[in-house]
Amino acid sequence: MSEIADLECRELSKSFLDFQAVKEVSFSVPKGTFFSILGPSGCGKTTLLRMIAGFQEPTSGDLLIKNKSVLDVAPNKRPVSMVFQHLALFPMMNIAANVGFGLRQRGVDKREIESRVEKVLERVGLPGVGKRSINQLSGGQKQRVAIARCMVLEPDVLLLDEPLGALDLKLREHMKIELKKLQAEFNTTFVYITHDQSEALVMSDQIAVMNHGVFEQIGTARELYYQPNTAFVAGFVGEANKYDAKVTSKSGKALKLVTKDGVELSGIDAIGNLNSSDSAQVFVRPEAIKISRKQADIEGMDNSHSGEIESILFNGANSQLLLRDNSNGAQINITMPQTGEFRDLAKGDTVYFGWEAGQTRCYASDKAG
Predict the structure, then answer these.
(1) Distance CA 15, CA 265 (A)
(2) CB atoms within 10 A of CB 188
(3) Per-block mean pLDDT, blocks of 10 residues, the chain (369 long)
(4) How much is the pLDDT for 275?
């Protein structure tokens, strides 16, 4: 018998007058899963989260927690807690009072509150700080207090609405690791909303990519990155060189294409719906492209070109090269190889570059979403 999902949405929809923000979304989240909903601003992800929390009433569909519908259950009665972007901690209360707030609202005995608060603070790495003021904490510590305040209520599902959005870059990178550790420590189902792909890719067991109120694809980070089902997912998850092209011939899944700039490409039909003369959107990952100072090194590749370096975007291991194709003037972005031989590349240098057809994923243009 399969395990009951902690959270399940069945054809959940939400309309505001004539605008449909969420359109018949269905998914289930097994216990102990870090599940992220990733999408651009305005795609419907926060509306979906608010329906799960009970702050918005669905127009249609059903919402189940532990296989029980909660549509008629008030927000404060649902086995769900929520961490907001701006945390909503009470500055006039000390840390222990903040963490124990929900338990006091539920009428839990004072001694039990003290015991549970101290235990949860220890589990989030903040033992013995209960009497300190909220204002004495760093941004990362405040994040952990906000999570402790939710986890002390022992929810079945913890909802997180872009909780790292207000942090500076360095702290945000650190908190990605911290959040994943905390989720594993509590073994609680996390449903995490973000527009930041790196947050979703780093932390999640499963990711749903949302666009215009629907889920375009649900999968692991690797599946979404290497096997996107739609042009939107291919373009939104990770970096990619993008071309508008026309299919000139097809054999099985293998394609020959020509771009608007006249670049001839060899690629694959990612989902099997392209035919000769079709318009296509083409995606090539920057790290899939090999570069060399010698033309012979790339001559045997399915796609081979030469180009002049226009710019070097130095960022340590994430450095990028912007090249201009010598034959047609098209610009291409390439991840700089982390080997010493390319350390002295400079603007104006000519290099040879190429990639295999299997790294060129092509989608029908009308599937872009």
Answers:
(1) 43
(2) 22
(3) 82 94 96 95 94 95 95 92 84 92 90 92 89 88 88 92 82 86 90 92 95 96 95 94 94 92 90 92 95 91 93 88 88 87 89 94 73
(4) 92
| pLDDT given at position 111 | 92
> Can you tell me whether residue 304 is helix, strand or coil?
strand
The secondary structure of residue 156, as a DSSP letter, is: S
We report the CATH number of the domain holding residue 202 as 3.40.50.300
How many Å apart are CA 147 and CA 120, to the nearest integer? Answer: 9
Residue whose C-alpha is closest to residue 157's, from 47, 65, 44: 65
Number of neighbours of residue 368 by Cβ within 10 angstroms: 14
Pick from 233, 249, 281: which residue ends a domain? 233
Q: Which amino acid is at 12?
A: L
Q: Are residues 18 and 124 in the same domain?
A: yes
Two structure tokens written together for 119: 């235990």
Do both 222 and 283 map to the same domain?
A: no
CB count, 10 Å around CB of 48?
28
Which residues have a Cβ under 8 Å from the Cβ of 136 and sit 6 or more positions away? none
Tokens of 300: 């045997």
Q: What is the DSSP letter of 145?
A: H
- Domain coverage including residue 216: 7-233
With a CB cutoff of 8 Å and minimum separation 6, the contacts of 85 are 161, 162, 163, 165, 166
pTM of the model: 0.89
Instruction: Please write down the long-range contacts of 21-26, taking CB distance under 8 Å and 24 or more positions apart.
Output: 21/47, 21/213, 22/47, 22/48, 22/51, 22/58, 22/213, 23/212, 23/213, 23/214, 24/60, 24/61, 24/214, 25/61, 25/213, 25/214, 25/215
